[in-house]
Amino acid sequence: MPVQAGGGVRDESDLYALFRGGVAAAVVGSVSVRDPQRVIEWARVFGRDRIVVALDTRELDGAWTLPLHGWTEASGVTLQDRIALYLDAGLDQFLITDIARDGMMSGPSLDLYRSLRASYPQARIQASGGIDSVAALTSLRTIGASGAIIGRALLEARFTVAEANAC
Fold first, then answer.
1. Alpha carbon of 34 to those of 10, 109, 142: distances in Å?
2. Mind listing the pLDDT tens digit of every residue in the chain (167 residues)?
């Protein structure tokens, strides 16, 4: 089974360690907001299919923003601007977390993911935040999400991996 992993990826040595460990794709978070040119270079070095751009987002005054440092610091960057920049550079794998729903088990932000699919049909978007049921996974699949992060739902036994795979 292909595995993606991330957390604390700050330089090429972190990526080499992940790939040597057998990871198929590295999830790159904060640096993808702070230093997109570095991430674009990593995609050139390692291959665009080996980099997943993770963008944690929060809706603020009608715009989807990308906070940093534990979601406490404004970056001044919007989700749409960053997705467009990466798509223009040839990266198309995104893990989008709606911060307001992360860990809340309140259902995913379907309107957000539906809007992103409509605006960026070429993007492969993994949904994260609020996924609480197989029905939520089915809804995400219907709107075209390429994957979903289901950690807490599995931890709380809301469904099994087999049930998630079946949908």
1. 11, 24, 32
2. 789 999 999 999 999 999 999 999 999 999 999 999 999 999 999 999 999 999 999 998 889 999 987 767 777 899 999 999 999 999 999 999 999 998 778 899 999 999 999 999 999 999 999 999 999 999 999 999 999 999 899 999 999 999 999 98
Q: Do 96 and 126 touch, CB atoms closer than 8 A?
A: yes
Three-state secondary structure call for residue 117: helix
Which amino acid is residue 140, in one-letter code? Answer: L
Exposure string (b/e) for 22-50, b if CB count within 10 Å is 16 or more? ebebbbbbbbbbeebeebbebbeebebeb
> Which residues neighbour 80 within 8 Å (Cβ) at sequence distance 6 or greater?
64, 119
Enter the pTM of the model.
Answer: 0.93
Angle between helices 134-143 and 110-119 (to 10 degrees): 20
Burial of 137 (C-beta count, 10 Å sphere; 0-12/13-18/19+) = buried
Residue range 4-166 in CATH 3.40.1190.10: no
